[in-house]
Amino acid sequence: xxxxxxxxxxxxxxxxxxxxxxxxxxxxxxxxxxxxxxxxxxx
Length: 43
Prior knowledge:
The chain is mainly α. It has one domain (2-42). Helices cover 56% and strands 0% of the residues. It contains three helices and no strands. It has helices spanning 2-6, 10-24, 30-33. The radius of gyration is 16 Å and the shape is rod-shaped. The N and C termini lie far apart (46 Å). The model has no long low-confidence stretch (mean pLDDT 79).
């Protein structure tokens, strides 16, 4: 398996894959459009 050859945990490949998908589709995600990432400023 790839992780045996590279010594990189499978979880790291999954995390990087999720990051790629989120980056590619970030304009379609409702969180930013609703301002959910700015909620900590008001606290």
